[in-house]
Write a structure and sequence with these properties.
Elements lengths: L2 H21 L6 H14 L22 H9 L5 H20 L7 H7 L9 H5 L5 H17 L3 H13 L9 H13 L7 H9 L2 H6 L13 H10 L9 H10 L3 E3 L12 E3 L9 E3 L2 E3 L5 H12 L2 H15 L6 H13 L4 H10 L13 H12 L2 E2 L9 H8 L17 H4 L4 H11 L6 E2 L2 H5 L5 H13 L5 H11 L5 H13 L7
Antiparallel strand pairs: 1-2, 3-4, 5-6
């Protein structure tokens, strides 16, 4: 391509990027984004359009061995330290290390989480605050801190998986105040336990009652919202063969399940409560099983047990686990193996994960595209970036970056959770470029990247390029991308140029995959 053609391509791309930036509301930061994107367009000048920058499966860096695959899958992002641990323990040892998460000393992360005091408050205390913005902020930032720094990486990945599976919009109704209780009581204690216990814990949650309107469901006038999503999204799956009649009967079974609120000042616990006088005590057939008249609260418990032990639930949960941790289109043989483990262990999550990672050759798993949250966290992990706690009433710049990328935790409106499909995320590159540029150049308040610490004494363009390759790619950065980084650095790069080169590496097509 001639220099003139390259210039026209870069100019055309810049115009398109400006349009996209304005559409997503980047506003005053557009000038900074233009500066970085202009540099990137120049560096990748051989690409004539934004579409050409979209990563494809063929651009993803190869995995050299099974332990690298396992680090990629069990953590929020590969790091040199995590790879060393995996190589030391071996494939099965490293897997068992993370499956036994409670034995991992994570006291350093606990210390990082200590400033987020709202996480430990009772529901009634949380509801005593006039505005929930501080509470929401602490839920979001503490989640990111755990994702970046926790030694219990698989545990945190499972927390993310289940908050997607039992997706709740943090903005609805009374939920902004109560979300710490949801995380503390419903999700985190059961993330690596058993699915039936997890299902029961989410069902007996004030947050879930408010989110899917079951707190308004009474005998004679049942609300079907929670019953429908309980079967379709939480347990059986949409193709399990249940009927509208089953939805209606389950809604009757769950009447009286609600929240202790509205009783007057000082009398509300804001916790889940069963109200016998609101329950439909008549007989109810569900999925071919007759629920006799009169058992009250046990109606709901028995229904949850029926759903949790159903073979369709085993298939549905196993399919989602395999899609998240193995590939977008996992082999049916793997799904069936995990489902069989579900049935034989009563839904033990650790056992299912062990089956998932020990049934097939890891080399047969295809790579996946990092969702925005995954990319941002993986970049901070690999670069040793620090997050300084701040107390704010509005979202931080990091939260704004995730919001612009469409992947701010707990902010997915529908109850189906953030998608885990290639087509949902693969084309949205501008927010990723902006995040990389801002993270490495001090543009995100309370996110601190130290280029000198990152370089570890590397001097000169070649040495800096090698350091970037090793820290972010484990020495596997594709040659074409590394040459671009090396050319950008020049012979003697300044710290600023080196930091920009790190941003370019985070933006590289191959770094979008794992």
């Amino acid at each position: 391509m001639s220099g003139r053609s390259e210039s026209r391509g870069a100019e055309s791309e810049m115009n398109l990027l400006k349009q996209l930036a304005r559409r997503v509301g980047l506003g005053t930061e557009l000038r900074a984004a233009e500066d970085f994107v202009s540099r990137r367009a120049l560096l990748f000048g051989g690409l004539s359009s934004l579409a050409a920058l979209r990563p494809s499966r063929t651009q993803a860096a190869p995995r050299p061995d099974a332990t690298r695959f396992l680090v990629d899958r069990l953590t929020f992002g590969w790091t040199e330290q995590e790879q060393l641990l995996a190589d030391t323990l071996g494939y099965h040892g490293y897997l068992e290390y993370h499956l036994n998460s409670s034995a991992i000393d994570d006291s350093a992360t606990d210390a990082r989480i200590a400033p987020y005091f709202f996480l430990n408050y009772s529901a009634a205390t949380l509801k005593g605050f006039q505005t929930p913005s501080y509470i929401v902020h602490q839920c979001l930032e503490s989640t990111t801190v755990r994702s970046v720094f926790s030694k219990r990486q698989l545990f945190e990945k499972m927390v993310e998986f289940w908050t997607d599976h039992f997706s709740v919009d943090i903005n609805k109704s009374h939920i902004p105040w109560l979300f710490p209780v949801w995380l503390r009581q419903s999700i985190r204690p059961h993330a690596m336990g058993s699915f039936p216990q997890l299902l029961a814990a989410t069902a007996q949650s004030a947050v879930m009652m408010f989110y899917l309107d079951n707190e308004t469901s009474i005998g004679g006038n049942p609300n079907e919202n929670y019953a429908r999503e309980l079967m379709e999204l939480h347990s059986l799956g949409v193709d399990a063969g249940y009927t509208q009649q089953d939805v209606e009967e389950l809604a009757r079974i769950l009447t009286g399940w609600g929240v202790n609120w509205g009783a007057g000042s000082g009398q509300n616990t804001w916790e889940f409560q069963y109200f016998p006088t609101r329950h439909d005590n008549g007989p109810k057939p569900l999925l071919g099983v007759n629920f006799p008249a009169g058992p009250g609260f046990n109606d709901g418990l028995n229904a949850l047990t029926l759903l949790a032990n159903h073979p369709a639930t085993a298939q549905f949960i196993s399919t989602k686990l395999c899609q998240r941790f193995w590939s977008y289109d996992p082999p049916q043989a793997l799904i069936d193996a995990v489902a069989a483990t579900y049935m034989s262990t009563s839904g033990d999550i650790k056992s299912m994960l062990r089956t998932l990672f020990t049934t097939l050759d890891p080399s047969t798993a295809t790579q996946k595209h990092k969702r925005p949250y995954h990319l941002y966290v993986s970049a901070m992990r690999a670069t040793g970036t620090e997050i300084t706690p701040v107390q704010v009433t509005t979202g931080t710049e990091l939260q704004n970056r995730l919001l612009n990328a469409g992947h701010l935790p707990f902010h997915h409106g529908p109850p189906d959770g953030y998608p885990d499909r290639l087509e949902a995320w693969v084309g949205h590159m501008l927010p990723r470029w902006n995040f990389a540029a801002l993270m490495t150049t001090g543009g995100i308040t309370n996110v601190n990247f130290d280029i000198n610490a990152f370089l570890q004494g590397a001097v000169g363009g070649d040495a800096v390029a090698d350091r970037i390759d090793m820290a972010l790619f484990g020495g596997l950065m594709p040659a074409a991308e590394k040459n671009v980084i090396r050319n950008y650095l020049g012979a003697n790069p300044t710290p600023t140029v080196s930091a920009e080169a790190v941003a370019l590496a985070i933006s590289a097509p191959s770094y979008q995959w794992y």
